[in-house]
Amino acid sequence: MRTWKKGLGMALAGAMALQLGMAVPAAEPEDDQAASGSLGAVQTETVEIGSDVWETPVIPDAPVSLRGVSQAEIDLNETTGDGTWKFLYDIPDYTAEDGVPYPTEENQDFDFSAWEDKNWQDIIVPGEPLMQGFDVLTNNEYYYQREITVPEDFAGNRVLVRFDGVYSNARVWINGKHIKTHVGGFTTWDCDITEYAAPGETVTMTVGVAELYSTTKGIWNPEGKSVNNPANATEYAHHDMTGILRDVSLVAMPYDYIARTYVNTDFDENFVNADLEVTAQLGLVSGEAVLKIELLDGETLVTSAETEFQRNGQDIKNLPELVEEAGTLLENNRDNLYEDKESGKAGQYSKEAYETLERERDEALAVLGSECMLTDAVKVTIPVEAPKQWDAEHPNLYTLRTTLVVDGEETQVNEERIGFREIQYNGADGTDNNKIYVNGKEVKLRGTCRHDVSDDLGRSMTREESYAEAKAYKNANINFIRTSHYPVSEHMLDACDELGIYVEQETAVCFQGPWADVASKYEDFMPQFTEMIERDRNRACILIWSLGNESNYSKIASQSGGNAIQDEKDYLSDMNTGRPCIFSFPDTGEPGDLADIYSVHYASVTGGLGSSTDSKPVLHDEFAHIPCYNLDELQRDVNVRNFWGESIKKGWENIFETDGALGAALWGGIDDVFYIPEGTTERWQSHSDGQTAGYGEWGSVLDAYLREKPEAYMTKKAYSPVRVDEDNCYVSGGTLYIPVKNWFDHTNLNEVKMEVTTDAGTQEFWIAESIEPHSEGVVTAAAGISDSQGTVNLKFYTADGVMVDEYNVELAKTEYSFTAPSETAPVIDETDSEIAVNGENFALVFSKTTGLISSGSFGEDEGALLTGGPYLHVTGSSLGSWTPAETDGVKAEMVGNQAVVTLNGSYDNGQGVQFVLSISGNGIIRTEYTLTTAPAAGSGLSEVGISYDIPSDMESVSWLRDGLYSAYPEDHIGRNEGTALKVREGAQENPDQYGVEPQWSWKDDMMNYFVWGTEDPNNGLATNDFRTMRENVYYYNVNYGSEEDAPRISVESQDADVAARVSLTYDLGYIDDRDPRIKYEGSWAAYESGSDYAGTETYSSAVGDYCELTFEGTGVAFIGSKQNNVGNLKVYIDGEFKEEIDTYSNLGNNLKQSEIYRIEGLENGEHTIRIETSGGKYNCIVVDAFNVISEEGSSAKEVSRLVIDNQWYYPNMGWGNYTGTAGTMYENMTGSATIRLTNGSNFTAEVVPSVSNVTVKDNGDGTLAASYELRNGDENTQVAFQWYRIPVGDPDSKAEAVPGADKAALSTDGLEASRVYCQISVKYGDRDLDPVKSNVVEVGMDYYQYYDITADSEGFVFTGEKDTDYKTDTDKSWTANAYGKTVTYLLDTGIPENAGVTFTFEGNGIRWVGGKENNQGIAAVTVDGEPAEMIDLYGTASTGSQVNEILYEKTWEEVGEHTITILRTGEKNDSAVAANISLDAFIVINKEKSRVTVEELTISLDENKVLQADCQIRNGTEADVQFQWYEKEAYTSDGYAKGDWQPVEGAVQSSWQPSPEDAGKLFCCKTTAGGVTTESNALLVNAAVVDDTDERIMYPENILQDTASSKPYLENSDPYNDTVTYFAGGDLTFTFNGTGIVWIAGHDQTASAAEVSVDGGKIQTVEVPGAGAGVWAFNQYEVYRAENLGAGEHTLTITPQGGYTNLDALVVLNPGSTGEVLAARNAGTAGMLQNLRLAPGLESAAGAAAAGETSCQEKIDAAVRELTRAIEDFKASQIGTVAVEEVYLDKTELTLEKGQKETLKATVKPDNATNQEIIFTSSDETVASVDAKGTVTAKGAGQAVITAESADGGHKAVCSVTVTEGQKPTATPEPTDTPEPTDTPEPTDTPEATAAPKPSGKPSTSVTPGGGSAGTGGGSGTGTGGSAGAGAQTGDSAPLEAAGLALGLGAAAAAGLAVIRRKKRIQ
């Protein structure tokens, strides 16, 4: 049972029990509810809502209109910090005696006025305090404060303060009165302050906030334990996070109110018409009400309905009147109290009694405002004809208006936006299990994860920011966001609803258990989860619920105090929100049915990303991580951001085209970067060098300032739903034909607008062609395109104006070329020290000393363009300095008309290189390099190429490149052509500043405060645009000026096969730790880090080790590292001790290149600094560098290099999202680069002939034909054909040319089982242009058959010993891509004897498929006894990375029988590490016989209990298929389905009739066709399984029911239906109809025993085995079986002996009519049994009552009882009394027109009379009525007397009232005789009710339902004059609608409990 959870939830969440009353029959539809046509009528039914798992919170929508209230919701935010909100950061000591109470204390009231003199500071709300300069700590409570003035017109309503997110724990006080404590930082919750903030009153609200995290001591963690909250948000934000993060508002909520409306939309099977289902529940103090429901489209009413509500059966008695009376007493006497009766005055009341009365009144009011006043829930189903559907591409929203009508008056109006959409999952309505459908169409989720990020407010975003973020996602073609890792705000959900973005709404659970123990508490999980569901369940945009992020199911269950994740899922199931759920990480002990979607994080973008049709859909909801953790690369090359686009493109294409891949959510959407103010602290940082905090710059779209990043466009392109095949676009007759794929989910391409721009201008078209979602076709643009048009720009727009994609389609093929080398040769001049090469206006000088270029200049006065190099450029391996060879280090010679300079030498790491520079007369320098020695590091390199030193005063770079896409935005760093300025225009006047929002695009940023350290001089050297490497450049110019003829270095590449960038670094001129001038003594070690100076550091962990540097200068600075694993060091200068310094830092990030020590002012000369380790927290210090200070000044300088890469790679992207190849080096490897020193353009473009629309068609006659479109051809143009085949079994990379196939047509003879395409090449003059590949056509795909080679396969004959000489691996990582996911190996045993396999087949071809790996040997292949062929299986791939391919193939002209044998020879390639032989499969080709295949084999039982096998047979009939039925016992002592399948003799047809003797067996069918055996699902026949929770099982008194989801001991077991029941103390009985019974149980740690009998017969003692100490096995073991009982009813009795035993299930054999045959597991795939889950029997209402829960009626009765007692006690506490002697009215006569009002004022004498209550009455209510305040209302013409009577003594005063119909009479008639006030006699004795307290005072004339008075307390509870305080009354107990009830409720409920207008003070 889980009732304990419910109780816990109530206690901790402050919820009241939800009482749901008895269900009532569905109401008959009213006549006016009937809808026209076939839609049907409106239906209503009473339903139950809520869950046994946790209480469902009530979070009512704020009214848009409320009777008598001008504005029902008032914003309490303050966004400027004007002082409205105050914040106390310098918190007083909470441990002091007068400190604020602990959150655990029973009374948490606190007088905050004692802190008035504290330093309360202005703060913005919402927003993080730390982001506003308050360096908060975790587990400490900080305080917000503001005044709230409740509007006067809130009178009569509850007053709520609504918080939309306070992180993570909050406490709220009003005027020091503790109101509420809440846990959970991202959900909406209310504080009811009604009794503490009266209308018109201004009160002070204090909000305490704290974040639970870590071991920091504070008021929430006084003992300093390891604590946490489920969200873990501080760890994520990398700074201490707390505060009011989301909106705060003041809400008026009536007592009769709309508590909740749940909305669901359900379409018909054609998704045309729909039912709108509105499940509503009211809070009613009044007895009954009507709810109007209206559906509006804009302002147009679509349909409407209404339904009646009644309060549940609870009798609230006179509780409202008691509350009113108590309020009056409290208000009238708040200043009339004594503490000590001896010192009190007459008429005063006891302060203690006052406080008791106040407390009980508050309790009673809480009951009236609680869920006890909730009605039953009513579901109203309203048919809607053809509503506009909501999906992410058509976000059509309607308005749902609900209006509450009480007593005929509209009291409350709510409105919310809803969408009509239906989600299908888990195979609903016949859909595929592995897909999700919206409105009947499969969706593919193009998603991103996202966080709340504001550059100035932290984890707090404004509505405007949320909309801007959502619009940016929409613009990036994102249709899905995952709200990692907490629910988003309502602002973001509004935006997603309106713009059309699906949402995975994730509860705030993160990092609970995967890498550490769980410190969060179970009770903190569920409130936030239920609040999320309650607030957001009506959202159209929410597609998926997430149960949490990267958490361990089992650890949470075992360490938090409850199984929170399972309870979240169970709660969802109970609440039936109509959405699937997901959980990450999966496979951490959860049951298989926990999540509906399988979550995968960090998958490789090129891996297998989907699932089979009978599995769950796979959602990669953390995918293709943005490069954000790789600081070295981000600092070195901004292009890593652009390059990521290639990865996401491949990843998304893989997902979209993979079955079962639901989609992906990129990590992430917005940079997680916080510009924390100076003086605040990062929590920890491992991948940031800057002063900002946060996890990383991982935004796939936006930075922290909400600017688009380079990644945004790469995301947009990758996710594009309009995918144009640019290579095959062509023009015919002026019309552009555009092949396109439609990757929308719900949009036909004829809904898309196309913009076509040519040289003639721009035209717009709505696409005419109909191309459905997830299909492809050709669209046309009749744009009159000329034959000479080179490029056409295409843009595609959705109907809402979003440009989803852009293409620059090249209709003309363009080739690029450069000015050729000059015919004029340069001149070589050589001296002893240098070699100079001079040419046309340039000079290049080589130093013989350095062996490198010393200068390269262009023009006489322009200065050097090259200052050093060439260098071998390698990123990923440290080369060191260059040393020229002693012989031929530099030599020059003329070769033809070029000067050739050869440089020989090596680097410090031993790498030898030869550079050969060929220099033309016009300044072209081609540099080739050759590695002359083997490299020290030959793989995993980021960059390999050449670099040159260049001056740093360049102005810009410009380029033309062949990018990934044809079109880029003008401000994108990846654009194909452009110019990037080194320094942003206006940068001097408008520099980058920390935390100041830039007013320029991202590419123009010069500073990055996350990637670079605060003081790092490398930050700010150039713009992002300038620092970006450009890949695949044709040219890349480094420009030294902006003029057209400015000098430049031009990198040139005819084939665009190099990348180029300018490397800018700021060399600080330090002496590096590796410099030989530094002397080390002791055990020092070297370390390399990109964050160190020069990438290196040296460290020691031994105390006393030291290093010394002797230098010349006037000072020195020591540069080291401050980090969390170092300690102290001592500094000596010239032998004198100077200082001991602690270098330890508790930040997670290492503060590299920190200046640890500096001394200046030394005498200029030689000095020595010594650094010595001296202990500290860790015995370690880091030496990075020394900075020598000299009189000459700093030696720091900017260093620039031109880098030209032949290989480039970004290895640290990792996370499976890189698709390239790492750089490699090897001895004799060569590479080259070409540069030109020039001052002009040397680049030309030429249009050449091209082909497009290359298409292959199958003519259907055994031939294929290729066609094409030729453009810009002439007489010099020739077209050539070449056909290629990819045999089945080979990857695409193994395509092979078909010999002799060089014509437009091709015969397919001999090409069976192949994929074929044609490649067309164009020859233009003597040039061969790039070939174009056609589509692929499959040939003869019905003529082959795979035969999976496995060790146990029939048809294969193995030699050798199984598992020694050969074995089969199945479902391993290295078999994932193998056929059947199996690979059989002939193992390398080292024994020369052969092992092998032989296979005989019929066909005309055979292929052997396997993998070439580095552990494979040489096989001998023999076919039909012919001589063996030796096949070498060696390959460089290791196991797991191999690609299976055809290893051997042989064909014949004719079909026949053949035999192939493959033998292991034991021989291997010299490079192989073993001699195994890989056997994946054989492929047999038989051109005479189409392959027969069986698909979708399933079995079922028909009504006659006959098994039927259903399947689809291709290329044959049932006669071509072999059927065989198999059986095995379902339940045995070994567990469920443990035996082997046994063939059923004679069962070889597609159907089979099991016999009664087969009862309790599993059956399956296997078919064999085409050599392939297919296995069906399994069914349990002639038996019914009855779960242990079935209510038909009668248990003894002592039972314990457990579930696998809540009990860790069941985690690794498989109990039936996930439940097991322990029982003891009596008999278990079960009556069934059948011929037998089987008892299924589990094995506990120890054995148990029971006596078992059937029908009172022979008693058998049964032992339930034990599994052993600490072991549990619940795998459905049979422990007892009774058979052959005879058909009919029987009773099983089980009596435990000596303690508990257990029951998992009972199996009835051959059940009668009440039995059922339940679907069994698919035993062939070890699937799960698919049975309906039965609700545990003890979860009934009776069970809950038995568990001791308090019912609502009990709460009401208690409130009446206790408040009555408190009123009586308060009155009894009065000291003496002063009697009323006289009553006076300020008027004795009134004349009013009908409808007018006037208030009479009554006074009593003496003034100090104790009881001054006055009761007003009217002699004729039809003429004039009067209310309790004396307000007279003229009702009708005539005369009436208003009497004011004192409650004490009955003294009276009267006023005569004359009412006219509208004309004032000329004279006022004299009033009738009015008696003077006289003493009123005491009332006669009235018998007292037995349960009533003693009456006191005079009763009023209002009557309770029981007949008692609702006066101030006097009188009895029975008869006509009793007290309302009597409470429990006899007689009629009708609800409040009974006539005569005090205050007239329901009208009174609408008018409000008057008490809520009373002012509450803290005494």
What's the gist of this structure?
Helices cover 9% and strands 38% of the residues. With 1963 residues, the protein is mainly β.
- What coarse outline follows from CA principal-axis ratios? globular
Q: Largest beta sheet, briefly?
A: 14 strands, antiparallel
Terminus-to-terminus distance: 45 Å
Please bin the fraction of helical residues: under 10%
Helical region count?
16
Mean pLDDT: 87
Query: Which structural class do the helices and strands define?
Result: mainly beta
Radius of gyration: 43 Å
Q: Strand percentage, roughly?
A: 35-45%
Report the strand count. 130
Query: Which residues form runs of ≥5 with pLDDT under 50?
Result: 1-37, 1713-1748, 1864-1963
Can you describe this structure?
The protein is mainly beta and 1963 residues long. It has 16 helices and 130 strands. The chain is globular.
Question: How is the secondary structure organized here?
Answer:
Blueprint (H helix, E strand, L loop, with lengths): L2 H11 L29 E5 L17 E2 L6 E3 L10 E3 L31 E3 L19 E8 L8 E6 L2 E2 L1 E6 L2 E7 L5 E4 L9 E9 L2 E2 L12 E2 L4 H5 L5 E2 L3 E6 L3 E11 L6 E10 L4 E10 L2 E11 L8 H14 L4 E2 L10 E2 H18 L8 E8 L5 E2 L2 E2 L2 E9 L2 E10 L4 E2 L12 E2 L2 E2 L2 E5 L13 H13 L4 E3 L7 H10 L2 E5 L19 H11 L5 E5 L6 H7 L4 H12 L5 E3 L13 E5 L16 E6 L7 H6 L2 H18 L4 E6 L5 E3 L18 E4 L13 H9 L3 E3 L5 E3 L2 E8 L10 E6 L2 E6 L8 E7 L9 E7 L5 E8 L2 E6 L8 E4 L3 E6 L2 E6 L4 E7 L5 E3 L1 E8 L6 E3 L5 E6 L2 E10 L4 E8 L4 E8 L11 E8 L5 E6 L15 E5 L42 H4 L2 E10 L8 E5 L5 E10 L3 E2 ...
Parallel strand pairs: 21-22, 31-32, 31-38, 32-33, 33-34, 34-35, 35-36, 36-37, 37-38, 123-130
Antiparallel strand pairs: 1-23, 2-27, 3-16, 4-5, 4-6, 6-12, 7-11, 7-16, 8-15, 9-10, 9-12, 13-14, 17-18, 18-23, 19-20, 19-26, 24-25, 26-27, 28-29, 29-30, 39-40, 41-43, 42-43, 43-46, 44-45, 44-47, 47-48, 49-81, 50-51, 51-52, 52-53, 53-54, 55-61, 56-58, 57-58, 58-59, 59-60, 60-80, 61-79, 62-63, ...
Helix pairs in contact: 3-4, 3-15, 4-15, 5-6, 7-9, 11-12
